[in-house]
Amino acid sequence: MDMVQPSEISSTTKGVERHVAKFRRLKSRLTTPEWVYPLHKAGIERFAELGFPTLKDEDWRFTNVAPVARLPFRPVREPASHSLTPESIRSMPFGKTPGYRLVFVDGHFDPALSNIADLPSGAVVASIGQALQADLPGLREHLGRHADIQHQPFTALNTAFFQDGAFIRIPDGLRLEMPIHLLFASTAGDSGATSCPRVLLIAGKASKATVIEHYRSLDAKPSFTNVVTELVAEDQACIEHCKFQDESLSAFHVAALHVHAGRDANIISHSISTGARLFRSNIRTVLAGPGLECTLNGLYLTRDDQTADHHMVVEHAQPHCASHEYFNGILDGKSKGVFHGRILVRQEAQKTDAKQTNKNLLLSDKATVDTKPQLEIYADDVKCTHGASIGQINEESVFYLRSRAISQETARRMLIHAFAGEIIERVRHPEVRDTLDKLIWDRLESNPHVSHPEL
Predict the structure, then answer these.
(1) pLDDT band at 448; cut points 50, 70, 90
(2) What contacts 302, CB < 8 A, 6 or more positions away?
(3) CA distances in angstroms from 213 to 104, 314, 416, 447, listed in the order given
(4) The predicted structure's pLDDT at residue 451
(5) Are 15 and 36 in contact (CB under 8 A)?
(6) Residue 201 Ramachandran class (φ > 0 left, ψ -120 to 50 alpha, else beta)
């Protein structure tokens, strides 16, 4: 394994010196195979060049990541002691949902809390650490091949420091009816504790699966989760991906989802965010085969001084493809929502059908939203629409319900719940949908501006 020399990495860009120094100290302890080391090295080199984004960067001008940059950078080499048990997991969302489960504590796989028994023949659900040591098929071909480190500094940082995560491979033709639950728990043992989990999902031809990514804090200290998910769907694969981020309001969470889909594939991804002081989701999907359909849904509930930021690019690279993005936000307190969606239609992507909407409901006069849906079209035979809305409860709708003998308080609650339900009802897996529906209902009811609007 070759070593990175100090002269090989510029550490003077935008205050990343301690991250580069940490990589130099940790590189000798890396246990990944030699072929992975160039990924790590390329990641830290690119992060050193890019540095942390600032408000002068177009893609980040509404989201200030200075609090993340100021955090002590402490990659967790080993998980801290914790109170997580099979019983406590059962009390969490999806804890009682039948299926397969991988549990990670501070980014490290915990086999004692996981359950991957009785997997169908040919299916692989394992930690990336295990998969790398066994050199399982699919890893060399796809790991790090779809995530963008050239333009995304946090993806580059994850690539430099990831040690573990989830590796899922569904063989051709296999249809998994039970979901795969990936639980990532953060102990936040020290302020600035950082985990960089990696998820690689490969769905073979004509396969089907549901995958849940669930992020949860076990402590309220400031922590940083920086995750990268690469989803590869081969021809005619049908994949439902659901991410639920519910970390503490002291936590920082930056995520990247990179989707590469083939001919006639069907991809649906849901992003449900209720936690973290700052949540940023970078989504990049490449519709690389004709006839495929991709749907991206999002729901974010924010309060206090939270920020929820979704930045996505949907690239139509082949003809006869459809994409639909529906993102709803319910914002309270001094919280902030950011949505930047871009549909890119290449010249060869004729017969494209694309729709993008972002709707935001403000429960407070101090909540703010910056939204920017975009179309960039180079083909001439397409059907593309986009739109955004920001506002408070529609008083005409309230009046209509009151005219049906419904009280004003109940009418407001019904409208707010229905606004969230527009997203939740699009979850296909019935048990996952029911779990999210109950959870979002309870979260909204616990908000006094929903249950008692006069307060």
Answers:
(1) confident
(2) 308, 329, 330, 331, 332, 333, 335, 336, 337, 367
(3) 11, 21, 26, 25
(4) 65
(5) no
(6) beta
Using alpha carbons only, give the angle 38, 14, 159 rounded to the nearest 5 degrees. 25
Helix axes 408-424, 430-445, angle to 10 degrees: 150
Beta-sheet strands, E only, within 188-251: 193-195, 198-203, 208-217, 223-233, 238-246
Buried b (16+ CB within 10 A) or exposed e, 319-353: bbbbbbbbbbbbbbbebbbbbbbbbbbbeebbbbe
Enumerate residues 6+ apart whose C-beta is below 8 A from 38. none
First CA to last CA distance, the chain? 62
**181 - beta bridge partners?**
101, 212
Locate 159 and state its tokens. 């690539």
- pLDDT tens per residue, range 211-267: 999 999 988 889 999 999 999 999 999 999 999 999 999 999 999 999 999 999 999
Per-residue model confidence as pLDDT tens digits over 167-186: 999 999 999 999 999 999 99
Tokens of 308: 């929820």
What amino acid is encoded at 27 in this protein?
K
- The CA-atom distances, in angstroms, between 455 and each of 363, 392, 448, 449, 451 are 12, 16, 7, 7, 9
Question: Which secondary-structure segment (H or E) carries 125?
Answer: strand 124-127
pTM: 0.93
Taking only Cα atoms into account, the Rg of the chain, rounded to an integer number of angstroms, comes to 22
- At residue 14, the pLDDT reads 54
Mean pLDDT of 406-425: 91
Residue 189 confidence (pLDDT) = 72
Half-sphere exposure of 397 (CA within 13 A, CB side): 13
Instruction: DSSP for 132-158, please give it.
Output: HHHT-TTHHHHTTTSS--SS-HHHHHH
Q: Kindly state the greatest CA–CA separation across the chain.
A: 75
Q: Determine contact, residues 118/98, Cβ cutoff 8 Å.
A: no
pLDDT in tens, 80-138: 778 899 999 999 999 999 999 999 999 999 999 999 999 999 999 999 999 999 999 99
Question: What pLDDT does residue 409 have?
Answer: 84
How far is the C-alpha of 113 from the C-alpha of 336, rounded, in Å?
36
Task: For residues 146-156, give the mean pLDDT.
Answer: 95
Q: Give the integer Cα–Cα distance in Å for 357 and 377.
A: 17
Q: Would you call 353 helix, strand, or coil by DSSP? A: strand
